Predict the structure.
Amino acid sequence: MPTADPALPAPASTGIAGLDNVLGGGLTPERLYLVEGTPGTGKTTLGMGFLLAGAAAGETGLYVTLSETEAELRAVAATHGWSLDAINLFEMVPEAGFAEEQEQTLLHPSEVELGETVRGVMSKVEALRPQRVVIDSLSELRLLAQSAIRYRRQILALKHFFSTRRCTVLVLDDKSSEEGDLQLHSIAHGVIALEQTLSGFGAQRRRMHVVKMRGLRYRGGYHDFEIERGGLAVYPRLVASEHRGDTEDRIVSTGSSELDALLGGGLVPGTATLFSGPAGVGKTTTTVQCMVAALERGERAAYFLFDERLPTLLKRSRTLGMDLQPFIDEGRLHIRAIDPAELSPGEFANAVRQAVEEDGAGTIVIDSLNAYLQAMPTEKFLTLQMHELLGYLGEHGVVTLLILGQHGLVGDIRAEVDISYLADSVVQLRFFEAFGEMRQAISAIKTRTTQHERTIREFRIDGNGLTLGEPLIAFQGVLTGVPVFRGDGAALMGDTGGDVRVQSG
């Protein structure tokens, strides 16, 4: 994570933990900063939180509103459960300003009215001597200025004035200026941009990035955030290299000795295992069995469920002899059902971090990557996000289990996105047709940490969970879904667990 320069004064907290993390601790005090974004991106909420954080630290705060009324600001604060009594509100156009005796003020030339507005802000600052100031918003000053030169001069005058009064200032701008107007960017000490986008379906997505911040090492790039009750929740972009840790050199069981043998001994902490295959082939059941084995060893786990309903998962697992409810009741298993249309990638990465760092989860399950893909703007971003997330989990020694659904049942089967190269181990599950029946086969495509079996085994899922059979040595083309039988006979798994001898001819 970025760190503040010890030679600089202690940073001023923004009141938002995630934003402070992005900035390496907070803002450099006694500087002027620009927060820009279209209406609805959370500028006012950020400004209020900044002043309330200062009030909690014993600093005087002043909120200057040029567009909204004091009643509107208090109503916004109430939705977050805040009281603004600890800060000073200054409404530049009070109701009395529209009285008949003040009517001529509205007829003054724009430069006169602009000067009066700026002088009004200065006089209020002189009277209160605040340590923190928020001006909302500069679009009103821009309209009054009428020209870029006059506007820039007034902003420079304000900046110089605040610098002599030792104020930390946030000026809010709704980006109503012409596209490409960077007047404020060159003047402000730092610039934070808030954005809001809409996809074809689902909730709007909000993200921010630091355009510039003089004298601070900050985390660049986009960071997702949400407006919640209590302020902005910022989810800093995950950077795996910032989370170095020591991992144990050991192998843990999957709960099946046959599957352990297929993987070369079992699962290695700090690695990611991808289970891929068509719908209904048993990916989730195999993954749950691996997770239950970890829980039975006394470890903790977190399951992020994208695809199906939680009651369905619990019922099916219980039917297969893997009851998850006792582990949930003990608090060692946390299952979070996620709607990908409502969750941003940054929020998801933050939830995974909380499961590891706060809940102590040693096993993380993501079911499935297909639904996670729907939460991403493009396939390229999914790969980059997963690279950082898997790197982070690897540094913490977590056993990561990933599920990827593929299109089709037999024959040519494809996935929406190929991230098999990111996983340390890849297990392929396939349907295949043999002698008039649909059967299931499993094979380890790769493991980076152990010497795995190169056989293809039949497997069955029943009330005892996952059971593997002997290698399908008498078949060729099992992974195509339509194998060719070669030999005098072959051992296939029967319904009762015994082998079925199949005669040729």
Q: What stands out?
A: The CA atoms of residues 111 and 147 lie 10 Å apart.
